[in-house]
TrEMBL record:
Species of the source: Prevotella lacticifex
Keywords: ATP-binding, Nucleotide-binding, Transport
Keyword Nucleotide-binding annotated: yes
Protein name: ABC transporter ATP-binding protein
Molecular function terms from GO: ATP binding; ATP hydrolysis activity
Keyword Nucleotide-binding in record: yes
Domain ABC transporter stretches: 2-238
Organism classification: Bacteria, Pseudomonadati, Bacteroidota, Bacteroidia, Bacteroidales
Amino acid sequence: MIEAKHIYKSFDDKEVLHDISTVFEDGKTNLIIGQSGAGKTVLMRTLVGLLTPTKGDVLYDGRNFYGMSKKEQIMMRREMGMIFQGAALFDSLTVLENVRFPLDMFSNMTYRERNTRAMECLERVNLKGAESKYPGEISGGMQKRVAIARAVVMNPKYLFCDEPNSGLDPKTSLVIDDLLSGITKEYNTTTIINTHDMNSVMGIGENIIFIADGRKEWQGNKDTVISSHNKKLNDLVFASDLFKKVKEVELEGERKE
């Protein structure tokens, strides 16, 4: 698991994160949600070490990341997988070469072993047969699946996903959600997903952290988010007509009880 303990982050005189403490659990899809500018991305970048907190600690299974030496942090990052918002594939490499890239860089496996492992991951995301194509030859949804395969090719203990459904249609988004949820369970990964997709919240939100104005406002799961009385959370979750109707039914049930 990953623990954030009293995280503060400021840029010059502007405080972006204020005293955030939470736990991201093993084997669960942990979602960070909030309006644009709430601090979601800054929190995720602080968790992975791309930004250093102004104050506070990040613990990976009890190991304080910001108490480590640079060498120890580099070794720690080998236990992490990252899926970027835009997939961030190498256009000049084939799908197979993109997935194999972390193994080529960091593993001691033979070429055949690296190829075999990369193909296993492509099969896991249902992309067998696409290994010889280039990113420009496949759809956005397929590119995201390649990014997922690349992120898990080194069997990471911790998986970070920055807006994995950004720019995708609802049907493809469901495919990505199912993949991330399945991989999380299969490998008992600590998966952290930064998202504003309410379908993801209701579909795979096993542990949800809601941030507003740089502060943790609420924490719960997909079963309790509907019944929350936090106004800021309700404004985010029930922005769509569909979820407004769900809330109306919920409140009507409460009045009858």
